[in-house]
Specification:
This protein is of the alpha+beta class. It contains four helices and 20 strands. The strands form five sheets. Strands 9, 11, 13, 16, 17 and 19 form a six-stranded mixed β-sheet that branches. Strands 10-20-12-18-14-15 form a six-stranded antiparallel β-sheet, with no helix packed on it. A four-stranded antiparallel β-sheet has the order 1-8-3-4. The longest helix has 55 residues. The chain is elongated.
Length: 363
């Protein structure tokens, strides 16, 4: 019975043994490693770091035990001879360092069932991805790549912006599109009893929530040489966002077109109010004082007599001018009252702001 249990443990461990060839080779980026020895003093910590304007992308983490040359062996290198000289087993990553510039992972030395001993070291293989090579899904950009990266707006420094509808269309020359999520945190308020009702990422199906490293799917394979990645956020809360990697099978080139699908409102012509230009009012002298009429002899009326009809017309004209003058005076008075009222309201608002600031600083 003990033999059967031992064989079952060996078979289970063989299923978790890592292969040193990655699905994403990262041939365009330098390979880096960080290892931590368990047989030293202090708390074992694996430290990962990248240069400025670069993001950490973890490739693999594993435990190891040297079979030969066990003097202070704390790391594994990619050499054919060392593959046989080390017993290694894949490590379950409980901390996601993807998207960070520096990261410190506290590790422990578990018992390795395949190696029948406790681990001597833990090693993390990673690479550094320049931020310029990571496409923002909401920015208009296109290009052709063999291996590409897409992120949400502001990732990884701030939460993504609200009210976004964006997409990236991927087209491979040959083969199928493969997608791998590297980091994922999309807000979901669960409104109306629906999952992913507020924010979501559509990459082989709608996804939302906060994924732990062990919950992130290792690979999303499409059935076609085309794939459309969509991102949506509403006007409420947001989160850190996502970072994903894509490529085509057999290393073929992939063309990518990213853009925002949100339409910018355009003002219609009917909503525009065009006021006609003010034209100056020209008043001639004849409109103000009509000429005096003369009698049949070519002279003025005798004894200062003036035609009563002309006098009444002139009086009416003068009354109209006086009325318009009174209207102008009334409008000037209303304008002055409005100006004084605006000044008083502005002073009250200023006093209220000063009171609020004083109360805040007193606290």
């Amino acid at each position: 019975m003990y033999l059967l249990l031992f064989l079952a443990a060996v078979v289970t461990s063989l299923q978790t043994v890592i292969c040193m060839d990655d699905n994403f080779l990262d041939t365009n980026y330098p390979h880096k490693l960080s290892s931590s020895c368990f047989r030293v003093k202090g708390i074992p910590v694996a430290k990962l770091s990248c240069q400025s304007n670069s993001l950490i992308k973890v490739k693999k983490g594993f435990y190891g035990i040297p079979r030969v040359n066990k003097n202070n062996t704390c790391a594994y290198e990619y050499h054919a001879k060392e593959w046989k000289s080390h017993c290694v087993q894949q490590a379950q990553m409980h901390q996601n360092c993807n998207g960070e510039r520096t990261c410190a992972m506290h590790v422990s030395n578990p018992f390795l069932s395949r190696c029948l001993d406790y681990a001597w070291y833990m090693q993390v293989n990673y690479t550094c991805i320049p931020e310029n090579n990571v496409y923002d899904i909401c920015q208009s950009r296109s290009g052709q790549v063999q291996q590409g990266f897409i992120r949400s707006p502001n990732y990884p420094y701030r939460n993504y912006t609200s009210d976004q509808d964006c997409q990236c269309k991927l087209t491979a020359a040959k083969g199928i599109i493969k997608i791998k999520l590297l980091d994922f945190a999309i807000h979901d308020d669960g409104s109306k009893g629906k999952t992913c009702a507020s924010d979501w990422l559509d990459a082989g199906g709608q996804r939302c929530g906060f994924y732990k490293p062990e919950q992130i799917p290792k690979m999303i394979e499409t059935d076609s040489n085309q794939a459309i990645i969509k991102f949506h956020s509403d006007s409420h809360q947001s989160a850190k966002g996502f970072w994903l990697e894509f490529s085509a099978s057999n290393g073929h080139q992939v063309s990518m077109i990213c853009k925002s699908m949100k339409k910018t409102p355009v003002a219609s012509v009917s909503n525009l109010i065009v006021e006609p230009p003010e034209e100056p009012i020209i008043v001639s002298a004849t409109q103000v004082l009509p000429p005096l009429e003369t009698n049949d002899n070519g002279g003025e009326h005798e004894d200062g007599d003036i035609d009563t009809g002309k006098i009444s017309a002139t009086d009416k004209h003068n009354e109209n001018l006086a009325g318009s003058s009174e209207d102008n005076t009334t409008e000037d008075y209303v304008d002055k009252v409005q100006i004084i009222t605006g000044v008083v309201v502005g002073c009250l608002i200023l006093i209220a702001v000063i009171i609020v600031i004083v109360l805040v600083f007193r606290r």
